[in-house]
Amino acid sequence: MVLVGPPGAGKSSIGRRLARALSLTLVDSDHIIEQSQQKSCGQVFTELGEPAFRALEEEAVATALKSGGVVSLGGGAVLSAATRAQLLNHTVVWIDVSAEEGFRRTRNEDSRPVLQAEDPRAHYRRLLESREDYYREVSDYRVRSDEKTPPGLVAEILGFLETI
């Protein structure tokens, strides 16, 4: 089970609850990067730049996918063709969020350099638009997190898992 989606969609919090419900571990590709680099993903992204960060992220995703647990990917992981190819043999759930809600959830965070812009609201909307086709391409199921509680989202995902 792999969770993808934009920043602020709720992948980490849903992932923790889902892993607990399934009696599995949660493996977060961002945490793998942070552990290997001994600094936050935001710092790594800023220091390396996006192309080098994405290459490092591909390796972290490959490691995470070998875990056998619930895997949460960073919001931009799907930008990599190699990562999208790795996801072909996994059940992928796209946790989606509207631009307005995603912006609301992330607007006060300074730990995500990919979201830094003069007009953060418009930037978040463009980020969603640029990634939507990739999320759609890799996902087997899509849930919208805007108006649902984490337990409700987990129940919906568990319901989907029962159908496969």
From TrEMBL:
Its main location: cytoplasm. Pfam families: SKI. GO terms for biological process: amino acid biosynthetic process; aromatic amino acid family biosynthetic process; chorismate biosynthetic process. The keyword Protein biosynthesis does not apply. One of its GO terms (cellular component) is cytosol. Mg(2+) binds at S12. ATP binds at G8, A9, G10, K11, S12, S13, R112. Its EC number is 2.7.1.71. Keywords: Amino-acid biosynthesis, Aromatic amino acid biosynthesis, ATP-binding, Cytoplasm, Kinase, Magnesium, Metal-binding, Nucleotide-binding, Transferase. The keyword Magnesium applies. It is found in: Cytoplasm. One of its GO terms (molecular function) is magnesium ion binding. InterPro entries: P-loop_NTPase, Shikimate/glucono_kinase, Shikimate_kinase/TSH1, Shikimate_kinase_CS. Binds 1 Mg(2+) ion per subunit. It catalyses: shikimate + ATP = 3-phosphoshikimate + ADP + H(+). Its cofactor is Mg(2+). Transmembrane segments: none annotated. Gene3D superfamilies: P-loop containing nucleotide triphosphate hydrolases (3.40.50.300). Substrate binds at D30, R54, G75, R131. Coiled coil: none annotated. Catalyzes the specific phosphorylation of the 3-hydroxyl group of shikimic acid using ATP as a cosubstrate. Monomer. Belongs to the shikimate kinase family. This is Shikimate kinase. It comes from Corynebacterium doosanense CAU 212 = DSM 45436. The lineage of its organism: Bacteria, Bacillati, Actinomycetota, Actinomycetes, Mycobacteriales. The gene is aroK.
